[in-house]
Amino acid sequence: MHLARSYAAVEVHAEGEQGTCYLGSVFEVPGLTAREKLHYLNAVDDSLRRVLTLEPRGRPQASANLVFPSTDPDADAGFVILQADRAHAMSGSNTICVVTALLETGTIPMTEPTTVVTLETAAGLVRTEAECRGGRCARVTFAGVPSFVDALDVSIEVPGVGPISVDVAYGGCFYVLVDCAALDVRLTRDHAREVVERAELVMAAAQQQIAVRHPEIPEIDFLSYVMVTGDDDPAGGRLRGATVLTGRVDRSPCGTGTSARLACMAARGQASVGSTFVANSLIDSEFRVSISDATTVGDRPAVVPRISGRGWIFGTRTAAVDPTDPYPTGFVLSDLWPREPAN
Fold first, then answer.
1. Please, what are the domains in the chain?
2. N or C: which end of the chain has fewer CB within 10 A?
3. Annotated catalytic residue 91
4. What is the pLDDT of residues 260-299, one digit of tens each?
5. What's the per-residue H, E or C state across the chain?
6. List 93, 254, 290, 308, catalytic entry
7. Which of 63, 91, 147, 308 is catalytic?
């Protein structure tokens, strides 16, 4: 065996959502900051993303987190999230995965009962508090990035569905949020494939009809995901949602998607500072979520979400590329990847 490149990682899941954490084994992404690395991966050279997220080294149900030393003196580490479609600025479940991996591998010293870990992301600094017991990272709670509404009740035409109304909001990345009733689906395990198929139609239409740009971070100028909401009880403190990405449903309740939803609820007067909820995924895993503060982003009203969830290490892996491998940057097939990732 002769390997041209190899990348060692820790496998973690946060409330069911898998996040492979490459702790310092990847050094080939230019850029001093997470924002510069995000731009490089999306606009200059995406070959590393393809190596780590597409088959045969990647799989559709997992993200790849590139964790690196941060140049920001206020951060303990930085990370960028790689998925099959592109690199992303922020993710709640992957934040939990990264903190769990950093602490339980000893990369960052663990202090019981609480360890504070600050992460540099392309969306800004994220301060986390980890509950630590018996050498384990039992729970990670963090203040999400300021989240705001881009537009409410936007009418778009979706081929195969018809005209529907959606919200567009930012929770660390830009989301299209749509009620499950508008798509005639239920948010249950046995309807997951229908949720994905209809949400993919919504995303394709939204990308053609809606333009976004973060007022302070120009590198974030794209829609990332569709979050389908409903079948829940917001007045009773329970939210339910399914974020759809690259032909599948997020297994966790989705931190950035829920943050975007909280911004929409605040804009409609359905939530305010101090409001707390339990957010559920399609596998009924839970995030505890709340609005901890109000702020502004540019000239837009925003909320500061607070997300809390659990992560577990379940293995290790080494991804490698042999110089004779005919698929050095991966491939996709439509049996597992309904939407062709970006080239």
1. 5-139+312-321 (3.10.310.10), 147-309 (3.10.310.10)
2. N
3. yes
4. 999 999 999 999 999 999 999 999 999 999 999 999 999 9
5. CCCCEEEEEEEEEECCEEEEEEECCCCCCCCCCHHHHHHHHHHHCCHHHHHHHCECCCCCCEEEEEEECCCCCCCCEEEEEECCCCEECCCHHHHHHHHHHHHHCCCCCCCCCEEEEEEEECCEEEEEEEEEECCEEEEEEEECCCEEEEEEEEEEEECCCEEEEEEEEECCCEEEEEEHHHHCCCCCHHHHHHHHHHHHHHHHHHHHHCCCCCCCCCCCCCEEEEEEECCCEHHHCEEEEEEEECCEECCCCCHHHHHHHHHHHHHCCCCCCCCEEEEECCCCCEEEEEEEEEEEECCEEEEEEEEEECEEEEEEEEEEECCCCCCCCCECCCCCCCCCCCC
6. 254
7. 91
